[in-house]
Design a protein that fits this description.
Elements: H1 14-28, H2 35-42, H3 45-48, H4 51-55, H5 70-82, H6 90-97, H7 101-114, H8 127-132, H9 135-142, E1 147-151, E2 159-163, H10 166-188, H11 193-211, H12 216-228, E3 235-238, E4 241-244, H13 247-260, H14 283-290, H15 301-304, H16 313-319, H17 348-371, H18 374-379, H19 390-403, H20 405-408
Antiparallel strand pairs: 1-2, 3-4
Helix pairs in contact: 1-17, 2-17, 5-11, 5-13, 11-12, 14-17, 14-19
């Protein structure tokens, strides 16, 4: 279950509320971020040798689909962002489909698109289609089973199949997000989520034009998304402190920039996104702990032992070096991918604390990069480090977790039954 919800931030303060609440929550739980640990990461071979390669191209937003209009593409991007959850079901998804969470959700949304006719009564990507989609249809398009076997109560050696288990829980979460959002859209008079998002983008463009502040657009869009759609209200009260993350809404806003920013001209207004807080999930905080940036050694008791051994000098020497060469793959085992190892299972409150710490850590990393000595960086041929952005840093952390074998083996924390990541 999700934590109790705080009040929404005051109008015009959504970005600031994310940053302020996350910093306060991190500090109140004694999660330390030393400047030396940030410098160590930024100057490491692991960072410098991969940042440009993966921070711009590994976002997972290349769609192998043909769209009849920009609005149809925006609608699919918006729904994909809304449904960008399932991190806690990574292992059972791999067991059933061979895909992880993100790839499973992408495949599901592509299936929604390919099985629908835009404008038809059975268009599953329309507001009405989202409002009425069934659990059976979601199961069919995901290609999963929602049955588990248990021993018969009275007949030894006999098992009984019944609906349940983690994948059934995930299907119910996806159904909730789609039905709930479809209902909001229908009641608001919108044909689909993309139409609502386009309206918000146009309002944001107007705000930027009137104020002359290029960051105003994203603030307006974020507020509209969160106020209207419950599935974007990624916030909680933890130990009487409000915390705001809004991961999926921020991801959508940046996704618009990625998908439509190169279109010339574009019928979709493009917000400035280089200043957005990172889109915090379970990967970012877990990787930042393993890379020694988030220090849990003095954190509150519920956090201190979550990642035993992470951040030790021995581990960091390996993880911050150039990736070791993987041995040649045995052709007979190329299709036998080992299941990922499930990390520590967290409570909702613990997950918000670590996710908030990751948001604040990334703010500090970019802030520190701006303050680094230019001449020293030039000698190292790393002057570009001063220009890294928060969204690109987010993409690097998310993508590098898959980029090398030793990183893929690092544990990520697990939270199930959440609608937000």
């Amino acid at each position: 279950m999700e934590s109790p919800l705080p009040p929404l931030p005051a109008s015009g303060t959504y970005m600031r509320s994310i940053r302020d609440s996350c910093r306060l929550l991190r500090e109140s739980h004694n999660i330390h971020i030393a400047p030396s640990s940030i410098q160590r990461l930024l100057l490491s071979e692991a960072f410098s040798s991969t940042y440009h390669r993966i921070s711009k191209t590994s976002h997972g937003l290349a769609f192998p689909l043909k769209f009849p209009s920009a609005l149809a593409e925006l609608n699919l991007l918006s729904i994909l962002s809304l449904l960008n959850i399932a991190s806690g079901y990574r292992v059972p998804l791999h067991q059933q489909t061979g895909r992880g969470a993100w790839d499973s959700i992408r495949a599901f949304v592509f299936g929604l698109y390919l099985s629908s006719s835009i404008g038809a009564d059975d268009d599953l990507l329309s507001a009405k289609g989202m409002r009425s989609i069934s659990e059976t249809k979601i199961v069919e398009l995901m290609g999963v089973s929602v049955h588990v076997e248990r021993p018969h109560e009275s007949i030894p050696g006999v098992t009984v199949g019944e609906v349940g288990g983690p994948i059934h829980e995930l299907v119910q979460l996806l159904k909730t997000l789609m039905n709930e959002t479809g209902n909001v859209l229908v009641n608001g008079g919108y044909t689909d989520l993309g139409s609502f998002v386009l309206e918000a983008l146009k309002e944001g463009e107007k705000a930027t034009r009137q104020s002359g502040d290029k960051t105003a657009a994203a603030e307006v869009v974020l507020e509209r998304l969160v106020r209207a759609i419950p599935g974007f209200r990624d916030m909680a009260i933890v130990n009487e402190q409000p915390v705001y993350c809004f991961k999926k809404a921020l991801f959508l806003i940046h996704g618009v920039s990625i998908r439509f920013g190169s279109s010339s001209p574009s019928s979709v207004p493009i917000p400035e996104t280089s200043h957005l807080p990172v889109f915090t999930d379970n990967v970012l905080p877990s990787i930042l702990v393993h890379l020694g940036v988030l220090d849990l050694t003095q954190a509150t008791q519920s956090l201190i032992s979550l990642f035993p051994g992470a951040g030790s000098e021995e581990c960091l020497m390996s993880l911050l070096a150039t990736a070791p060469s993987d041995p040649p793959e045995d052709a007979t085992k190329m299709n036998e991918k080992p299941l990922p190892k499930e990390g520590p299972i967290l409570t909702t409150e613990q997950s918000y604390i670590l996710r908030a710490a990751a948001i604040d850590a990334c703010e500090l990393i970019v802030e520190y990069s701006r303050s680094m000595d230019t001449s020293e960086l030039q000698q190292l041929r790393l002057e570009w480090v001063k220009d890294i952005t928060l969204p690109d840093l987010d993409m690097w952390l998310w993508a590098v977790a898959k980029d090398r074998k030793d990183y893929r083996e690092l544990e990520r924390f697990v939270l199930r039954n959440t609608l937000f990541f």
